[in-house]
Structures are given as C-alpha cells and as structure tokens.
Write a structure and sequence with these properties.
373 residues; alpha+beta; Cytochrome p450; five-stranded mixed β-sheet; 10 strands; binds protoporphyrin IX containing FE
Length: 373
C-alpha cells in the first residue's frame, strides 16, 4: 500500500474504502442518505459551471458555514452578489501582490529552515508548514509580524474548526457552532481593526480601498482563514513525500506541483445543492437534491503520480474548483507552495520518518521528518 493511501485510511478508515468503491459505479451515482455522487472530471466540471447547482441551498456548504460566518462570505453566495464581492476581492490576489506578500512574511522562516537543513538537522516539515501557513494567514487577516508560537496557535484554532466537519456532515451542531463562532469572531475582530486602520500596504486596508464594507471584510477574513490555511499546510509535506517516494527529479516545479495536487486533492469533496431541475451525467435531479463531487475520485481516475503526465482539459486544476467559485486564493496558495518547495529542493531533502494523521478532514501527515540528502 502506498503512503498516500495510508494517509486516506488514517483520516477516514471507514469512509475512504466506500468512497473509492463508489468510483467504480460510474460518473454519477445516487447514494441514499448522501446525495448524487460525482466521480468523473467532465461531469464535475459540468456541475461546477452550471448556475442551477448552488452553494447556498439545502445540503450545500452554506448549510455548514452560514450559521458561523453569516450569509455573505463568498463561499456560500451565488449570483450577482457573489460576482460583485469576487470582483472587489480579486485585486488582492494578483500574482505580483501575493508573491511580494509571501516573500515578506516567509523570508525569516525560510532562512531559518534553510539554515537548519544546511546544518544537517532533521526537521518536522508538518510543524514548519503549520507555522508558515499560520504566519501567512495572520498577515492576510491583519496581524502584523507574529511570533512562530502565535502563528501555530492560530493554525490550531482553524484546524479545530475545520475538524468539526466530516465527509458526511450536513450541519454543525449547536455546540460546534458556538465554538466555531468564538474562533471566527476573534478572527473577525482582528480583521476589522486592520480594516479600520486602513493601511493600504495590508490586505485588510486594501479591502477598505476596494470599497468593501467592514462586514464584508470580516467575512472574507473568516473565509480565507477557513479555506486557505490547512489546505496549503497539509499539501507541502505530501508533495515532498511523493517526490521522495517516486525518486522524482524536478525540472519543472509548477508541473510537479499540479501533478501532486491531482494525486492529493487537498479539498477532497465539493458540495452543491440543486436549485432547478437538471441532470448530473444521466441522472435527473430535483431542487433540494445534494450533489457530492468527489474531487479525489475524479482526479485519481487518471492514474498514479507521474509528473510527465499531461492533464486533459476536463481535469485542468479541478482540485481548485471550476466556474464561478474557482479558488480565489489559488495565486496565494501557489506562491506559498513554490516559495517553500524551492528552498526544500535546493537542499535535495529526503524523508527519514513519517506518521499519518488520524481524525482529520484533509488526509495528511502528523509528522514528516526530513533532512538534507
Ligand atoms: C492547496 C491550497 C488550496 C486548495 C486545494 C483550494 C481549493 C479550493 C476549491 C476546490 C475551491 C472551490 C470549492 C467549490 O467550488 O465548492 C476553493 C474556493 C475558495 N478558496 Fe481555495 N484552495 C486552496 C487555497 C486557498 C487559499 C490560500 C485561500 C485564501 C487565503 C483560499 C480561499 C478560497 C475562497 C475564499 C474560496 C471561495 C471562492 C468562491 O466561492 O467564490 N483557498 N478553494
């Protein structure tokens, strides 16, 4: 069994074998109690680019996050309101801006990582990535320079909220909503203070100058915090492990990253609620039906990790979504991943020990100890 499969089984010992079994039943299959499950990239893309499939109806991400974040936080919106908010947020994610932000926030942590590897230390890449992804999100939501301990603390708070969701969750219970609100309110307060200060060199200050209201800025900070921390932090150790396990020589870093994204699919499922009668593949669906796009099955159908593989059009970056909700943080995620991977590759790192994480939503390592080769 390869290490990636072990990660999935450690995270979802019962659900993962079932989810993989469903992949054999066709591009779209109705599963009582779960919804219409999509296992195929072309069918997934058709759903993601069709406005009849929504993120704000029954069984959608809105059901999970609206009680915590409020109704207007991009990932639970549709239509003109969603498009208008996205337009205001887009300038915050231009490749130039995010590269400069990442270079600034990660300069010291990356120098430190390079020094430790250069000295021959064994480093836990999971801990390093939690600190770095935590530091980037701290800066994004409006904290200035923060200590590694504060970055880790914030990361752990996000993890606590995300881990409330399982592959079967439809709603958070009252206690979970209270805990999640407590965390997200603290994030919102930090964001609002930075927003009110209005310093245009900060993301929150830029939101103000883009014409976002304080409530929109608070909501956006919460959405970034939930979606943009664990996804990046869990991916980098898996990327490094894949390179190690396959003895990959990296000529084209971006291509290797995309192929590792395909195999790992850090966001393993995407949910939609049917708003109007439609078809998913050959299945007729009705308003209120739930569609569960198993991105992992869609992507794994193309075989094992192979960086020389070309991704066909229907597959292209489906692990970041498609259509109106395509990941707005994609440039930021890529800038972070590239920055860390470049340092790791310059030290030609190898994996010395690892442990899979249990009870997590996104399969990953609990520890991945690496050292310079
Ligand atoms: C490896 C890293 C990441 C992956 C794999 C990823 C994946 C995704 C996917 C699949 C979606 C679409 C979900 C759907 O259609 O249901 C999405 C949306 C989103 N992502 Fe990411 N993401 C990553 C990093 C980030 C980062 C760093 C941020 C920002 C700080 C971010 C912010 C968002 C937001 C706000 C949305 C909602 C967009 C909308 O609904 O219009 N993501 N992401």
């Amino acid at each position: 069994m390869n290490h990636e499969t072990r990660l999935h089984l450690a995270a979802h010992p019962f659900a993962y074998p079932l989810v993989r079994l469903l992949a054999r039943l066709g591009p779209a299959v109705r599963v009582p109690g779960l919804g219409v499950v999509v296992n195929d990239a072309a069918t997934a893309r058709a759903v993601l680019t069709d406005a009849r499939f929504r993120k704000d109806g029954p069984g959608s991400p809105g059901d999970l996050w609206t009680p915590v974040l409020g109704p207007s936080v991009l990932l639970n919106m549709e239509g003109p309101g969603h498009a208008a908010l996205r337009r205001k947020l887009m300038p915050l994610f231009t490749p130039g801006y995010v590269s400069a932000l990442v270079a600034d926030v990660l300069r010291e942590p990356l120098d430190d990582l390079s020094l430790r590897l250069g000295r021959g230390e064994t480093v836990d890449l999971v801990d390093v990535m939690r600190t770095m992804a935590g530091a980037v999100i701290c800066r994004t939501i409006g904290l200035g320079e923060v200590s590694a301990a504060r970055a880790r603390e914030l990361f752990a708070e996000g993890e606590r909220v995300v881990s409330m969701v399982s592959l079967r969750s439809r709603r958070l219970n009252e206690r979970q909503v209270t805990v999640a609100r407590g965390v997200l309110d603290r994030i919102g307060d930090i964001a609002q203070t930075a927003y009110e200060a209005g310093d245009e060199s900060t993301v929150m200050g830029r939101m103000k100058s883009q014409g976002l209201s304080a409530a929109e800025a608070r909501g956006a900070a919460g959405a970034f915090f939930l979606t943009g921390t664990e996804t990046v932090a869990t991916f980098v150790p898996r990327l490094v492990a894949l390179l190690h396990d396959h003895g990959t020589k990296v000529d084209d870093l971006d291509r290797v990253i995309e192929e590792a994204m395909r195999v790992t699919t850090p966001t393993p499922v995407m949910l939609r609620s049917v708003g109007e009668p439609a078809h998913v593949g050959r299945l007729a669906v009705r308003p209120g039906d739930r569609v569960v796009i198993v991105t992992h099955n869609c992507a794994r159908a193309y075989g094992p990790f192979d960086p020389s593989r070309r991704h066909p059009p229907e597959l292209r970056r489906i692990w970041f979504g498609a259509g109106a909700h395509f990941c707005i943080g994609y440039p930021l995620a890529l800038a972070e991943i590239r920055a860390v991977a470049t340092v790791l590759l310059s030290h030609n790192v190898r994996v010395v020990r690892r442990r899979a994480a249990r009870g997590v939503l996104i399969p990953t390592y609990e520890h991945l100890w690496i050292t310079a080769a």
